[in-house]
Amino acid sequence: MTFDLLLKNGTVHTPGGAESVDVGVRGGRIVAIGTALGDAGEAIDCTGLDVLPGCIDSQVHFREPGLEHKEDLESGSRAAVLGGVTAVFEMPNTNPNTDTADRVHDKLKRAHHRMWCDHAFYVGATADNAERLKELERIPGTSGVKIFMGASTGSLLVDDDDALSRVLASGTRRVAIHAEDEARMNARKDHRVEGDPSSHPVWRDDESAMIATKRIIDLARKARRRIHILHVTTPAELEYIARHKDIATCEVTPQHLTLAAEDAYPRLGTYAQMNPPIRSGAHRDGLWHWLNQGVPDVLGSDHAPHTIEEKAKPYPGSPSGMPGVQTLVPLLLNHVAEGRLSLRRFIELTSSGPQRVFGLVGKGRIALGYDADFTVVDLKKRWTIGSDWLASRCGWSPFEGMELTGKAIGTIIRGHRVMWEDALANQAVGEPVRFEATEFA
């Protein structure tokens, strides 16, 4: 056989486990897995490297349109592929919000072959568009509906039970939830200490998260609607969600698995400020406990960049959020190297998990007929995150200077070598991600 692309001599992670096999690609899809496969127009020697299914980051904020001084679709996706991410789901709290069909199509048009990775866009839920969501969630290239139960960056907010019920009643796809209780946080604003970002998790406390999580699971059950709870930060929530997995999936972030309040706020100040907050080391350890019990379904970066000038404002006038799409893969590989996470669980959380939760077509595994998306990694590479490697327009990372073991060497998307050894291809090739719910609607 003749292939467009052949990955040779690597350790390939198929659904059956790690194998010393080659992978043949034709027309952007995997057409052969084995040895002595044949010739190819391009062959990549992966000796000493692990070939993983393409990593999917199912929560990023790329800020376009309206906030391009922080990030845009090109720069955010460039950071993604430099870090080893092959597809992203982008959030709707832009300016204007992504809450109509025209605004979804505008993003898709802006993204086509300008974004370096494949992509899908969330539709933002509002009290005004609730009844139209069942049509909006069916637009090809949409990853579903997003609800903000607590105010964060932007103006999207659905915080009362009546409006939440109307949103959940409109449509059938899994709804993504930012679960913080707006009423409790409004009542606790006096817990914020001027100039002290370590008061952020005191204001947006554990109970703010738990109240919202219990509310939305109860409402979802009444509506018979599946939900996906984003960036869970408390062990108590994961214990609760574990009892409701028939209706609720959930996500954790590398930031909450890596940073702890005791160190992060004194060292990073407002650069550690995000919603929901970075909490204590005990919280972080609790997240790891439930992660290794199998409760979280996916890992998302919640990439949410703000400029250095914006972050320099005194708390609480400083905005919440930090970049993370470029560091998602290396941080997790470092956790693999240090024994906290198995490589099999890493693949589940970043590839097969997103495929299962969101119903992706052709992504999430190395198997015949699937898109030729690969994250090629060197599990033993020791390196330090430097400013010259970071591509986000915001120009900083809370993990700059961190020494890691494990790095993405290559990002291959539908058979295109988009990144290899920190060098980008000549052309972005990003296309919309396909979903069962829109492909066969």
Automatic annotation (TrEMBL):
InterPro entries: Amidohydro-rel, DHOase/Allantoinase_Hydrolase, Dihydroorotase_CS, Metal-dep_hydrolase_composite, Metal_Hydrolase. PROSITE patterns: DIHYDROOROTASE_2. CDD domains: DHOase_IIb. Its cofactor is Zn(2+). Pfam families: Amidohydro_1. The keyword Endoplasmic reticulum does not apply. Keywords: Hydrolase, Metal-binding. SUPFAM superfamilies: Composite domain of metallo-dependent hydrolases (SSF51338), Metallo-dependent hydrolases (SSF51556). Transmembrane segments: none annotated. Residues 51-418 form the Amidohydrolase-related domain. Belongs to the metallo-dependent hydrolases superfamily. DHOase family. Class I DHOase subfamily. Catalyzes the reversible cyclization of carbamoyl aspartate to dihydroorotate. This is Dihydroorotase. It comes from Sphingobium fuliginis (strain ATCC 27551). The lineage of its organism: Bacteria, Pseudomonadati, Pseudomonadota, Alphaproteobacteria, Sphingomonadales.
